[in-house]
From TrEMBL:
Core subunit of the mitochondrial membrane respiratory chain NADH dehydrogenase (Complex I) which catalyzes electron transfer from NADH through the respiratory chain, using ubiquinone as an electron acceptor. Essential for the catalytic activity of complex I. It is an enzyme of class 7 (translocase). Its EC number is 7.1.1.2. The chain crosses the membrane at residues 50-73, 85-104. It comes from Macridiscus melanaegis. This is NADH-ubiquinone oxidoreductase chain 3. It catalyses: a ubiquinone + NADH + 5 H(+)(in) = a ubiquinol + NAD(+) + 4 H(+)(out). InterPro entries: NADH_UbQ/plastoQ_OxRdtase_su3, NDAH_ubi_oxred_su3_sf. GO terms for molecular function: NADH dehydrogenase (ubiquinone) activity. It is found in: Membrane; Mitochondrion membrane.
Amino acid sequence: MPVLFSLVMSILFLSLSSFLSQKWRYEKDKLTSFECGFDPMSSSRTPFSLRFFLLALLFLVFDLEMLLLFPYIFSVSSVSVSMGVVSKIWAFMFLVILVVGLYHELNEGTLDWNKE
């Protein structure tokens, strides 16, 4: 019953807000970037370095890997011996997959910053 009530209230609020809101007309000036009232001198879409994007993505992957390993390190001491072996196998497999991925990225040249 509370789920149904929440669903009905959500639909009611969404329909009420769309009914009461002003409909904006999009003009050409509203869709361009603002540069002190003058026409823009260049496009606001600037290119970005794909190499930097890939390196940042790899950093996030390995940063999350550390985030996932910290709780494992602290919980190993409180696990029984039989579960400890299974959890060590899973942690080893996790690290092997990450090292294989790092090796692949190294061979692919993603980590070579000066490569043209």
